[in-house]
Amino acid sequence: MAEKQQSAYAGNGYIRSGDTEAAAAHNMREQRKKKRNKCILYILLFVVFQTAIITVFALTIMKVRTPRFRIRSAAITDFNAGTPASPSLRATVTPEFTVKNANFGRYKYRNTTVEFFYRGTRVGQVTVPNSKAGWRSTKKFSHSAVELSLSGSPELAADLTAGVVPITSTARMGGKVELIFIMKKNKATNMNCTMEIVTATPQTFRNISCK
Q1: pLDDT digits (tens, 9 = 90+) for 72-125
Q2: CB count, 10 Å around CB of 107?
Q3: Which among 116, 126, 92, 91 has a CA at the least distance from the CA of 170?
Q4: 3-state DSSP call for residue 55?
Q5: Residue 74 and residue 76: Cα distance in Å, rounded?
Q6: Which residues have a Cβ under 8 Å from the Cβ of 26 and sit 6 or more positions away?
Q7: Which of 8, 24, 39, 95 has the most CB atoms in a 10 Å sphere around its CB?
Q8: CA–CA gap between residue 167 and residue 192 (Å, rounded)
Q9: First-to-final CA distance of the chain
Q10: Separation between Cα atoms, residue 74 and residue 98, nearest integer Å
Q11: What are phi and psi of 135, to 5 degrees?
Q12: Are 150 and 89 in contact (CB under 8 A)?
């Protein structure tokens, strides 16, 4: 009689207790699976985010760029030029230099010798003392005067006649870049500048171009 009654309940749409427990267990497994998938997704997103941050950090902040050392301008005093028949050149030059540092850390540079040439012949030199350029900045500074002197050059006679005397300057500056006070890396920069002295108005260098 009891078995018939239980079968009747089942036939009338009632759920057996065993089926209820199985359904509850299935739902619990599904919920755990969803939580596990969410956790894995969050971990993957975090890894991708961290990788992107590290990549940007390495390509921007931690990238060491070569500083730039240049002659910005130069005032000329005590200028004396000879004649085409007796060519000579004497001038006192006070150059202004710049050190451009694009790194996220200061650039400490060593003593640097700057040489001045007239068509391959050295006519003067000056030593820039060691110092430092702040991070992401351009350091501008003037130096003591340097004497330029030349005589007896056959090419100088033609340049004095034309009224324009070409001058070049070269230097190699060595130093260290200190990235956010963590990493230090040696970095050297070359300077190669061309300029002109116009004998009619010899107050400054004209047409300064550096690379």
Answers
A1: 999 998 899 888 888 999 999 999 999 999 998 899 999 999 999 999 999 999
A2: 28
A3: 116
A4: helix
A5: 6
A6: none
A7: 95
A8: 11
A9: 106
A10: 12
A11: -70, 140
A12: yes
